[in-house]
Amino acid sequence: MKNVKLISLMSISVVMLLLFGCGKKDVSNVVEGNAAEQAYVAPGEYDEFYAFMSGGYSGQITAYGLPSGRLLKEIPVFSKYPENGYGYSEETKGFFKTSYGHVPWDDSHHIELSQTDGEFDGRWLFVNGNNTPRIARVDLKTFETVEILEIPDVAGLHCAPFITENSEYLVSGTRFSVPIPQKDVSISTYKENFSGLINYVSVDQESGEMDLAFQIEMPGFNYDLARNGKGKSHGWSFLTTYNSEQAYTLLEVNASQKDKDLLAIVNWKKAEEYLKAGKGKERTTSYYHNLMDEGSGIVESKEMTKTTILDPKDCPDMVYFIPVPKSPHGCDVDPTGEYIVGNGKLSADMSIYSFDKIMAAIEAKDFAGEIDGIQIINYESGLHGILKKPGLGPLHTEFDGKGNAYTTFFISSEVVKWDVQKLEVLDRQSTFYSPGHLVIPGGETRKPYGKYLVAMNKITKDRYLPTGPELAHSAQLFDISGDKMKLILDFPTKGEPHYAQSIPASKIQPNSKKFFPIEENEHPHAAKGEGQAKVIRDGNIVRVYMTTIRSHLAPDNIEGIKMGDTVYFHVTNLEQDWDVPHGFAVQGANNAELLIMPGQTRTLKWVPNRVGVLAYYCTDFCSALHQEMSGYVRVSPANSDVKLMWGLNNENQDEETLREMLKQQGK
Amino acid sequence: MLISVILLIGVFLFPLWQITLEAAQFPGGLRLNIWINKFSGDEGGGDIIANINILNHYIGMQKIEPDAIPELKYFPYVIYAMMGLGLIVAFVNKAWSYLTWFIIMSILGVLGVYDFYLWMYDYGHNLDPTAPIKVPGMTYMPPLLGEKDLLNFYVKSYPRLGTIFLTISILLSFLSFWIRRKFKAS
Questions:
Q1: Cβ of residue B70 closer than 8 Å to a chain A Cβ
Q2: pLDDT tens digit string along A300-359?
Q3: What domains are there in chain A, each with its CATH number?
Q4: B-chain residues near A550 (CB < 8 A)
Q5: What is the 3-state secondary structure (H, E, C) of chain B?
C-alpha cells in the first residue's frame, strides 16, 4: 500500500515537473486567430456578464466584467477596508461582531447568487467566511454588504453557503469537526467527543434577511462542499465529506487511507417536517447577527443564544450517505437535477450518481451499513456511471446546459469537457496553472449561459510581468460556444478567488442604485441640509453634524475642541446625483478616512492627541474646486475656556445660539 | 374650437420647454423640463434643480427656487380660464368670439415666452461678483431658442410638446374663426 502511494506521489511530481519545467507551453499555439476580438469590449461598451469572485484570504469580493476581464469593483465584506472606511466607520463596525469579539478579517470562498425557479435573479449575493464561521449578504442594488450572520458550533465554514433553487435556504457544513459544545478535552478523544453540523439558514424572500433555521448533528467528518438539488431533486442537499477516517493529525496521510469517503444526502423537506413536529432540540449557544438598517445605514448587532438541533438518530429518512472514492472535494448537480458529480481528489476516475437511482435505492432499502443512525446506500446502486481517467486531481464541475460538464483538474492543470449522459471526454485545454474552481455564467443553475468559462488558477508563476515573490492569481477565459474550448483571455485577479458566479448584466444593471435619496436618510445624526450643520457637546463627547456638497464642508471652522474629547464627525453627503461621492479625512486619524455616497451619512470617531489646529478635507476629487474643500479644527488644552464655535464663510455660531435656535424651532 | 380646448389639456401633460446642458461629465446631457406649473429632470436623475443650482453656484448665479416663481402658481389658472372661455366661445359660435379668443390666447402666449425670457435674463445677469468663477461680461444666459456654448456646457433650448399643443390650439381657434366667417359669407 505504502509503495503504491509512493509511486503515485512520484508520478504526480513527474507531472508537475513536466508542467512547470517546460515554461509557457507554446501559448502561441493555444491562442487562436480572433481571440482578441472575442474578449474585446470597445471603449464605452458594456460587458455581457458580471462575474463575482470571492477574494479568499482578502476576505472580500471582486466584481469583474466578462468577457473583458475588467475589474469593476472590490466589495468589502469580511475585512476592514480603509479605502472607504468600511468596518472603521461607526455605522459599519458592527459587521465584525462575533461571539469571538471583533474579527475584522476572514477568508471568503464561495459566492452564491440568489435564485428563483433555479435561475439567478440578481437580488442578492451570499458568501461564506471560512475562518470565523459566517455568511454575508451583499445587496446587488448597491453592491454593498448589508448583513453578516455567524454560524455557531462549527469550525471552518468552508462548505458554504450553497443556495436552494428558490433561495429558501443557504446550506453549509463544518469543515473541521469539534467538540459540541466546546470543551477542554484531549485531541486524541476525537472519535468520542468531536462531531459535525450541517446548517440550514433561511432567507426571507422580501428583505433577504438570514436566520439560522436548524442544524443537523452529524458524525465527526470534514464536510467539504455541497450543492442542492434542482428540478426533480429540489428538496435535497448533497455534501461531500473527507476524513471519514476521523484522523486528527497528519491528515494528508491519515485522512487518505480509506478507499472511499462519503457523500451526505439530506432530505431538507423531511427535516422541515421533523422541525414542525417538534423533533428539534433547542440548545443554548452564542452567535451574532449583524444587520444594516436600510434607512440609517447603521449595523445593528444582536447576540443570538438559541439553536435548534435535529439528530438523524431521532429523525429517520432525513440523512443518507453514499460512498465516493478517495477524498472527494467538489460535488455538483447538473441543470436537470438528475446527475450528481462526486470528484475524488485522489481518484483516477470520477463517480457520477443518478438521483433517480439514489431514490430507488432508498425505496428498496438497498443499504450497505449504517453510521450513527444514518443509512449508507450501496455505492453501485446509486451510480449513473464512472468517467474513466479524465485527468488528475478533479476538483469542480460546472455545466453549459447542452448536456456537457466541465471539470477542473488541479494536478494535470486543465479543464476537461465531457458528456454527462454518455460519460465521454470531449475536449481538454490546459490552464496556467492548476485551476481550483471554474465558473460558467449560470453554470450551476437550471439555466446556464454556456458561452464563457473562467478557470481560476492557484499558481501563476510566469504568466505576467513578475512582481517579486508575491504574485496575483491568474484566470483564463475560454469561449465554450463551439465544440472545442478556446482560450481567449488571461487576466490577473485580486486576493485568491475560490469560487465565482457570473450572471447576465441585464439582471443587475437596470436595478443598480445611483444614489441614496436624502429624504429617505433616517440616520439619527444626519444633517439633511447645510442649515442643520452644527456641533454639540455632551460632556467629553462632541458631535459634529457636517455636510458635504461641491465644493465645501460645513462647518469648515471648528473651535473649542479640547484634549480628552472624543469627537464624532457625522458627515452627510448632500449631493443627489450619480457618482458624486465625497471623502472625509482628518490629519492623524488612527482609524481611516470615510467615503460617503450621495444621500448617505457616515461617522468617523476621532480622539485628538495634540493641541493645535488640524486640517480636514475631502479625499475624493469631486469637482473643479475639490482642493478648496477643506477645513480646520482647533484643539485646545483640556482646561482651556475656548468656547465651542463653528461656522462657514465667517458666519460663526456657538452652542448658546444653537440652543436658542432650537428653542425657537420648538415653539 | 372644442379641439382647441382639449388640446390645452396637453399643456398640463407635457413640458413646455426644455433646456439641455451638454458636457463631458454628463453623458446624455442634463435636461431641465419647464412645465406650466413645475420643473422636472430625467427619471431617476435626482433633483434637477438642486443639481443645476450646485453647478450654477460656481459662477454665482442665484439659486433657482420654484417656490419663488409665482408664474408657476398662477399660469395654470390662466389656462383653466382660457379653457372656460373657449367653451363659452364655442357655445356662442360666432366669428368674432373665435377671433377674440384667438387674439387673447396669442397675446398670452407671447407674454408667456417674454416672461420666460425675463426670468432667464434675470438669472443670467445677476451673478454674484464674489463667485469662484467670474464669467466674462458677467452674463451667463441660455438662449431662448437655439443652441449656444456657455463655458463648459453646450446649451440647447427648444419648445416641447406642451408648447406645440398650445400653438396648434391657437391655430385651430383661428381656423374656427376663418371657417365661421367663410361659412357666413357664402
A1: no
A2: 999 999 999 999 999 999 999 999 988 889 999 999 999 999 888 888 899 999 999 999
A3: 2-511 (2.130.10.10), 518-666 (2.60.40.420)
A4: 54
A5: CHHHHHHHHHHHHCCCEEEEEEECCEEEEEEEEECCCCEECCCCCCCHHHHHHHHHHHHCCCCCCHHHCCHHHHHHHHHHHHHHHHHHHHHHCCHHHHHHHHHHHHHHHHHHHHHHHHHHHHHHHCCCCCCCCCCHHHCCCCCCCEEEEECCEEEEEEECHHHHHHHHHHHHHHHHHHHHHHHHHC
